[in-house]
User: Fold this.
Amino acid sequence: MTEASASPDASADAAAVAAPIVECRHLHKWYAGVHALKGVSLTIKRGEVVGLVGDNGAGKSTLIKIISGVHPPDRGEILVDGKRVDIRTPKQAMNLGIETIYQTNSMVPMMSIARNLFIGREPLAVSIFGFGLMDQAHMRRESVKAIANVDLHLRSPDALVGELSGGQQQGVAIARAIHFKSRVLILDEPTNHLSVKETARVLGFVRGLPAQGVAGILISHNLHHVIEACDRIVAMARGEIVFDKPVGETSIEEFQEYF
Assistant:
């Protein structure tokens, strides 16, 4: 098929694939007179993990809350697959394939792995007007597949999440996001309060995101973790992006010259 004979739909699909999966353009945010974001522009490409670093108050959390639908921007726009979107709630972000895992995860310790993996998305074995019995067998089967998919091997999908280590709990949260086809996974300080071994496990999960077809944003205060797990480093200060380079084209020494 020649370029001239290509259908409009095919051209639109090609443009969507070529576009960044998420693009922020000139985002501004004020809180009670404080200019928290000052014209921030950022692209997240398919198949990459971006490390977002900066001191407290740099604007990282504000930027992530806007992308994940917690707060709307006061000015600027967000595009997903090259199309402008209006993200007003976390549910809208999830419907667009954007999911966030916070350092204090939202799983319920006294519920099983299977229940936590499907929380809010429980399949029903029998349904009458949207109410019915949960399909426990389906949840167990799919949970085993989901956790194995991120190379997390746990003894049973019926084990309580509260019995898992911190790294294992983060692994379950990542498995949940991948299982439900998240396309962009935001991880907010996922290695806080973890042992060296558990930290290495979580960073391994992060490195494996592109192989699962998932782009990632890793927020961290630890530059060594970012360099180990990410493709690109983006640093913020005073509400602006002040550094943006591929990991392979920079070093800790160069980065430290900016701070």
